[in-house]
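Re: folding output
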Amino acid sequence: YAAIVTRRRGMTGLMRIVLGSIATKLVEKLTFVPLILVGKRTPNNKILLAFDGSENAASALEFVGSLFGGFDYEVSLFHVIRSNGEGQPEYQHIFSSKEYTRAARKEMSETLKAAQTKLIDMGLTTDKVSTQIAEKAISRAGAIADRAKQEDFGTIVMGRRGHSHVSDFFIGRVTNKVIHMARDRTVWVVR
């Protein structure tokens, strides 16, 4: 199969549960094929692809391109940098220096441009593929979930894990948080 599609939870009456027991087990165990967790909202033709340049993000990009090339879908490649310490004092320890932020922005801009070109080469139209880098975020997952909500992206696509190579993690921290924060959206988890 190309992917597994499931609802976030089954027939349980517990409304506060973000993922039911079956969906939770699939997130944990299904590491060899993309998993699509369907949210309450009906997905539209707007895809937010959280992109950090990792191997899993590249796989997510390939998956999106292979499915939507030639169709009228809008895809936004989105990257989040914690940056420059201008946040509230209690959060300054998590922000990057201005020098790091400039270097990361430059490097990621080039990486996003290459990813954008790849999607266009796979059949998406030039005017439907955009890139954006967000800075000054306290939470990467929060920034992703907020952008999806604010700009009405019905689907969020993410790699299973980012740059972490810790084999004990079955799913990355940011991906896990987005699954929980964007509970009304459809979230694709791609390896």
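--- second protein (sequence, then structure) ---
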Amino acid sequence: MKQLDFFITICTIALTGCKDDQLQEPQAPIDKVRLELTTHYDGALFDLNTIHQTQEGYSVQFTKLNFILTNLKNGSEILSDAAVYKFENNPTLIWEGPGDFTKFSALTGNVGVGPDENHLDPAGLALTNPLNIQNAGDMHWGWNPGYIFLMVEGKADTTAAQNGVFDMNFLYHVGKDPLLGNFSFTDLTWTRLNDSLHSATLSLDMSKIFNGTNHDVDIKLERTSHTMPGQEPLSTKIIENFLEGLTGQ
């Protein structure tokens, strides 16, 4: 008899549990936001290995475009602590994650990593952190001096004939604490992609790398910088020109 009572009790609990599960309402999807990028070269379509012209008339092909954004926020509202962008991985996506788009009509942030994190061991960060070495990859020189904030590489035809024979490579790896850049965008436009996902798009004009308002970069004379001693002036030109080319839409 006791065994029968025990069996009935177990069945009752099981049925009650099933009923409770059936009565539970489905959870609403988590609101997410996506920060995207459109890249062009003085209005022309930009892609790796597409040929463009510099202000001096040199033909250039870009082979790499990477950068790190940090401290993405609007006032006290934080969108993301960090985002690592690599054109070769996904040319249009900067970052995607949970967030309420209505709180980010404006956006401020840094190009690069601030001093508090720039000299941490990237292997010691959480695997979910974009700055972990597995995520940052080649965007880090080593724990000292830290992260590469901006990486632009390519090849150029600087000959008089301009017959498509690329006679030199150019490489700009910008980093170190003094070159941390910052930006501020207002009136961001958010587009609804589905019930739980909205996107905003930034624009990047890569022609500004060579031809900024305040800095002209002649790749025949200024082809390389790893931001080593003596190379800081060129790295300063590159990061400031990049910041000029990066705008909100």
